[in-house]
What we know:
By secondary structure, the chain is an alpha/beta fold.
Amino acid sequence: MNTPLFTVVIPTYNRANMVKKAIDSVMNQTYKGWKLLIIDDVSTDKTKKVVSPYLMIPHVHYHCMEKNGGISRVMNTALMMVDTPYLVQLDSDDWLPRTALSAIARRIYRDSGNTAMFYGNLRVWRIGKQKKSSKPGAKTYFHVRHKSFPNKYSFLKYNRWMVAPRCYRVDALREVGGWDTSDKYHGRIMEDRRIILRLIERYPIKWIDRTLYNRTKHIGQLTDRKTIRKRNYLRRKTFNFYLEKWGNKYKAKFGYNNGYLVIRKLKRRRKR
């Protein structure tokens, strides 16, 4: 039997009420060349009980971390375990449209092989507090259409919803050393942007102009001021780190978007 093309990795922590939908969205894919790896970051709810019925399926696997380590350590554990050419990250409160893997597979087969990551467009579903006219528990969504990044600086400045789905070439992930856990938050914050920055300085990443991901925005994701301060600290550190690493050709003009630090403009430094 040929090795499947993808391992879909679902990192999860206390999402027993949502993870089933994520798993079922993989089960229902029109493309069947996949494995599923669910990595539990030591949940304290009924996550394992929800996952257990799926473990009768040979290509579905569950792994529980020895201790809670955060998203980057979970993804590095996944990277050590996968044996397929590509890894698709699916957060446990999100889900894939039925044809997502088929669309990505078609693009992979047409690609030269050097691309480190493929991504598409997404729907963002708001669950919870709605307008007064909405029914209780109603869901609304809006589309996010991403774009191509012609160079690493264009991605560094990108300040919209983070690109998804993220289908990574496993060899490229291993080449750059996986997800960074060396910061003072041990890779718990901004892991998505930071791994892409590691990749894009060496490899192309490519956009598939189709809606390939469903993301939820719910009350469990509310961010307090302390968390925003942490994110902004790490965002500034990350932006400045890469600008310096890439030769200090540009100076960043920073601003804020909904409370988050962003790069408003990159100004080329004058040569001395």
